[in-house]
Amino acid sequence: MTMATRRPRQVLRSAGALLLGFVAIVVLSLATDQTFHALDVYPPWGEPMTEPGQNLLALSYRCVYGVLGSFIAARFAPYAPMRHALALGVIGLPLSAAGMVAAIHMDLGPIGYPVALFLTVLPCAWLGGLLHRARRLEA
């Protein structure tokens, strides 16, 4: 295989690893949200979540899913797994910033929750990369 054919394949695999990690985070988060709405743990869709416990619960599983998604991105990365994990975090930063702005303008509940989401994006991505590195060293 020549360098010319290897490079596009790596770029596609790299993009695929990031997409896979991102989709895992989104699907798991939305499925968990829907489950908690259906079980009346959360208020109906469209109503603000004002209870600190509800926001802490949502932040907790989103952090776990952020670590997991970054681990997946690192696991399927064709090279530089930690860089892929962190790249997923960098992708999440403007998305969570947009969520903060939306939460402020639409009065979706306490501002602390979207701020906490924003502040945890990169640490969760880094932890996912570290988890992948530790797992690889064990093998």
Task: Characterise the protein shown here.
The mean pLDDT is 93. The protein has one domain (8-42, 50-138). The chain is 82% helix and 0% strand. It is mainly α and 139 residues long.
Short description:
This protein has 139 residues and is mainly alpha-helical.
Arithmetic mean pLDDT: 93
User: What radius of gyration results from the CA coordinates?
Assistant: 17 Å
Helix-strand category: mainly alpha
Give a quick account of the main beta sheet: strands, pairing sense, barrel closure.
Answer: none
Tally of domains = 1
Number of helices: 4
What oligomeric state is this? single chain
Low-pLDDT parts are: none
> What is the rounded distance between the termini?
28 Å
> Considering DSSP H and I runs of 4 or more, what fraction of the residues is helical?
over 70%
| Apparent shape | elongated
N to C succession of SSEs: HHHH
> Which percent band covers the strand fraction?
under 5%
Number of strands: 0
